[in-house]
UniProtKB/TrEMBL annotation:
Region (Disordered) residue spans: 194-255
GO molecular function, one term: RNA-DNA hybrid ribonuclease activity
Stored SUPFAM superfamilies: Ribonuclease H-like (SSF53098)
Protein name as catalogued: RNase H type-1 domain-containing protein
Organism ancestry: Eukaryota, Fungi, Dikarya, Basidiomycota, Agaricomycotina
Domain RNase H type-1 span(s) in chain numbering: 1-46
Domain of life: Eukaryota
Entry-linked InterPro entries: RNaseH-like_sf (IPR012337), RNaseH_domain (IPR002156), RNaseH_sf (IPR036397)
Organism: Hypsizygus marmoreus
Comp. bias (Acidic residues): 209-219, 233-249
Length: 255
C-alpha cells in the first residue's frame, strides 16, 4: 500500500495535468480477471520453492546440533581425574545457577575443590613440591576427601554437610544441585580450602611461634621501661650531690 501511494504521488507531482482515477472493484464472482488470478495463484502454490531460512534460525539450529554432539561425546567419555566425581551436570550454553548465585570468593574455592586444584597436600605433591603435603591437623597427607570427611579443624561445621548427606558422598556433594547448595554453605562458614584454612578475613589460629614472638616483644618493652626508670633515678641522684656541694661552699664563704 505504501509503494502504491508513493507511485501515485510521484506521478501526480510530475505534471499538474496528470490525474488518477480510482474505482471500486467488486468481488471475485463473475470477474474474469479475478478468477484468472485465483487460478494462477493456486497453480503457483503447487510449484517447488527454495526454502527460506533466516540467519537467526540457522544459527539456533547450528548451536543445538553442536551442543547435542558435544553432549553425546561427554556421555560416552568416562569421568576421570580430580573433576570426575563432580562432572555430573549436563552440558549447556548458559552458566549453571550455582555459578551466578555464589559469592565470587566462595565460588573460587568451590571450583578449586571440585577440580582438586586447591590449597591441599595432594595438589602440592604434583605441582608445588616446595609446599608441605601435611595437614595442619597432623595428618601426613592432606587430601580433598580428608578435609571434607575427617579433618578435625572442621568438625564444628561438618554437620552442615551431614544433615543432608550423612554418608558424605562426594559424587552427590560436588555433582548435584542440592549438594552444591549445601557445600557452598559449608565453605562459607568453615573457610575450608583457603590457603590458611580459615574464612576470608577471620583471624588465623595462634601458633607457638606467635606466642614466642609476643613474649619477646613484651620483654623488649619491659627492658626499655626499666632503662627509662634507671635514667631518671641517676638524674635525681646527680642533682642531690650538686646541692650538697653548693651548701658546703656557702658555709666556707661564711666562715
Amino acid at each position: 500500500m505504501l509503494t502504491f501511494n508513493k507511485i501515485i504521488t510521484d506521478y501526480l507531482t510530475r505534471d499538474e495535468d496528470n490525474t488518477v482515477h480510482v474505482q471500486w472493484c467488486p468481488g471475485h464472482t463473475d470477474v474474469k480477471g479475478n478468477e484468472r488470478a485465483d487460478e494462477e495463484a493456486k497453480e503457483g502454490a503447487l510449484l517447488w520453492q527454495p526454502r527460506f531460512v533466516t540467519l537467526t534460525h540457522a544459527m539456533r539450529r547450528s548451536k543445538a546440533q553442536f551442543l547435542q554432539k558435544w553432549t553425546d561425546a561427554w556421555r560416552r567419555t568416562p569421568p576421570t581425574g580430580g573433576f570426575g566425581v563432580a562432572n555430573r551436570f549436563p552440558l549447556a550454553w548458559k552458566p549453571k545457577e550455582h555459578v551466578t548465585s555464589t559469592p565470587r570468593e566462595v565460588f573460587g574455592r568451590l571450583t578449586q575443590c571440585r577440580t582438586r586444584h586447591a590449597f591441599i597436600g595432594e595438589y602440592y605433591a604434583k605441582f608445588v613440591p616446595a609446599e608441605s603435603v601435611e595437614c595442619p591437623c597432623g595428618t601426613n597427607y592432606q587430601t580433598r576427601q580428608h578435609i571434607i570427611m575427617e579433618c578435625q579443624r572442621y568438625d564444628a561445621h561438618r554437620h552442615i554437610l551431614t544433615e543432608d548427606f550423612p554418608g558424605l558422598d562426594l559424587t552427590k556433594l560436588l555433582g548435584t544441585k542440592k549438594g552444591l547448595e549445601t557445600f557452598v554453605k559449608f565453605l562459607a562458614k568453615s573457610g575450608a580450602f583457603t590457603k590458611t584454612g580459615t574464612p576470608r578475613g577471620a583471624p588465623a589460629r595462634p601458633l607457638l611461634e606467635d606466642e614466642e614472638e609476643d613474649d619477646e616483644e613484651e620483654s623488649w618493652w619491659e627492658r626499655i621501661e626499666r632503662q627509662g626508670n634507671g635514667s631518671g633515678d641517676e638524674g635525681e641522684g646527680g642533682g642531690g650531690e650538686e646541692d650538697e656541694e653548693e651548701e658546703e661552699d656557702g658555709g666556707r664563704g661564711g666562715t
